[in-house]
Structure formats: C-alpha cells, structure tokens
Amino acid sequence: MQPRHHRSAAEIGNRAAEWLVKRNDNEGWSDIDQTQLDSWLAEEPAHKIAYLRIEAASKRADRLGALRRPTEVRSRFIPALKVVAVAAAIVVVFGAYFFTTLSGVPEKTYVTGVGGHETLTLRDGSRIELNTDTSLRITDSGAKRVVSLDKGEAYFQIVHDAVHPFVVLAGNHRVTDLGTKFLVRRNNDTLRVALLQGQAQFDTEDSRGTQQATLNPGDVVVATATSLSIIQTPNQTLTDELGWRRGLVVFRHATLAEAAAEFNRYNLQKIVVADSHIAQLNVNGLLRANDPQTFVRSMKMFFNIRAEVRPEEIILSR
C-alpha cells in the first residue's frame, strides 16, 4: 500500500476553492462531480473543514443575507452554494487559511460525574466548561483544535484563529468556530447548540443530505436524526441556561416534570413525579442545582403536594 501524501494547508485550501467554483457552475455540475466531491470531503477532516470555511468566507464576501432572516428559518439551511464572484480570488486570499495535517495527534478525554463541573484551559487561552455527567475528547496540537462531545453539556469560549479553526463534533453534527462563545448540549439523540457571542458554522448530515447554517448571537439549533430547527432566543433565556456555571438552576414557567428532570441531571437522588395531575404545575425560581431537598420543600409549600423521601429517590404526588 502506498503511503498517503499529506497535503499542506495551502494545497487543501486551493483544492477546496476549486471545488467551490466548479460546484457553483450549475450547468457543468453533474452527479459524477457530486460523488467525487463527497469522496474528497470524506477523505480527511481537513478537507471538509477547509470547504466549510471557504464556503463561509465566500458567503460573507458576497453579503448574502438569507441566513439571517428570522421569519424564514428554513432558508437558513443551505443545500447548495450560490455563485459568488469572489470565489476564485479566495484561492489566493485564503490559501493559508486552513488546517494542516490532522493525523497522528493524541486525544485527551475529560469526564465529569453527576453534579460535576470542570473548567479546561487550552494552550491558546480558549476555555471549555464541562457541566454535570459530561464526557468529551480534545485534540489540541496548536495546528489542530477539535473537541468530540460524547455526552453531556459544555460551554465554549474560544480564541479565534482563522488558520486553525476550532471544531466541535457531536455524532453527525459539527460546529465550527468563527469567533465564538457557545453552549452545546448532547442528550441521547438530540443536540442543542446555543450561540451567545460571535458566529459559528453549523452543519449536519442525515438521510436528507447535508444541511448548513451560519449562527448569530441568540440562535439556537436543535438537531435530531430526523429534524433540524433554528430559533432566535432571548438573551435572558440563554443567560438562565448558563446558571449551572454558578451552581444554579433557573426555572421560568417550567413544568414540575421538567424541573424534576433538570434536578435529576445534577443529583444521584432522583425526583420522581408519580402523579400526572401535578406534572404540569408551573414552576418558577432559582435554586442550587445540588439541593433537591430545598426544591421539594418549596413544592410542598406552594402546591400542597406530598413527598416520600427514599435513599435514592423522592416521590412527589398529591
């Protein structure tokens, strides 16, 4: 077997730009071309990252506003690129913009237990905060900055580096930093990405093909195996969701069932809502995430419900 030739960042960037220009030639693009492009993108992570970065750069240069219209959510997911006049120039301007070789760099795994919280600082000053019951892997060689979120939730404050993009992988989903503070939560088959500052490129692959969006502050993406949506979210809501960084959970018009499920993320002693009649009770407040007992006492006082306390669970009912 011949050893694989690892191309330089400039070579990968140039090739990605060539694919971009060719794909934008609608009359000359064929199914064979698409198959070849898909094969090239799948060869190495550097290829796909380079293509996504040059795609984002071309869209910004052409001042495409379609991704920012809040009333046209579906238009923000791009099945194919439009022609942009500056695409050919990007080969020169962004020739050194992309990843160097992405092989041979060891991963480090970080895990928090139930109720755990850990802050990591990378060599470039970027910070990652891990919430309860979270597992992620980091590859940080300086040239390559990739995080794989296997489960849980993490908050990212990334030092932007156009030459070495920061990428978060979660299953078939990818978030690429464009100068960003963002929150990623992976729960079973659902991924939620909330952007607080800067921009990020989100892309996903499923049975419908590849879908992409450029996220702006306040955008929240929810992706499953069969659906993808993006909504604009008030800043206060996103701030509330980051309460766990201070050891808090914040409820604004949550149901009792939702509040119990949130407490259960942080505690081994689980809250069980055994009565469907109280599951939809409206809950508001701010409490310590590791103090389910205070939450239960409050629910008993405000809603006149019963609580049966056992070593491993607290059962709520009428």
Helix and strand topology:
Blueprint lengths: L8 H16 L6 H13 L1 H17 L25 H7 L14 E4 L6 E4 L5 E4 L4 E6 L4 E13 L8 E5 L2 E15 L2 E17 L2 E7 L3 E5 L4 E5 L2 H7 L6 E8 H11 L3 E4 L8 E7 L3 H12 L2 E4 L3 E5 L1
Parallel strand pairs: 5-6, 13-16
Antiparallel strand pairs: 1-4, 2-3, 3-5, 4-5, 5-7, 6-7, 7-8, 8-9, 8-10, 10-11, 12-14, 15-16
> Largest beta sheet, briefly?
11 strands, mixed
SSE arrangement, N to C: HHHHEEEEEEEEEEEHEHEEHEE
Fraction of residues in H or I helices: 25-40%
Which band does the percent of strand residues land in? Answer: 35-45%
CATH architecture of the largest domain: Sandwich
Total number of distinct structural domains? 3
Q: How many β-strands, per DSSP?
A: 16
- Class by alpha and beta content: alpha+beta
Write the CATH fold name of the largest domain: Jelly Rolls
Radius of gyration: 23 Å
Which regions contain 5 or more consecutive residues with pLDDT less than 50? 1-5, 63-103
Q: Could you tell me how far the N terminus lies from the C terminus, measured between alpha carbons in angstroms?
A: 70 Å
Mean residue pLDDT: 81
Question: Overall 3D geometry?
Answer: elongated
What is the count of DSSP helices, taking H or I runs of 4+ residues? 7
CATH class descriptor of the largest domain: Mainly Beta
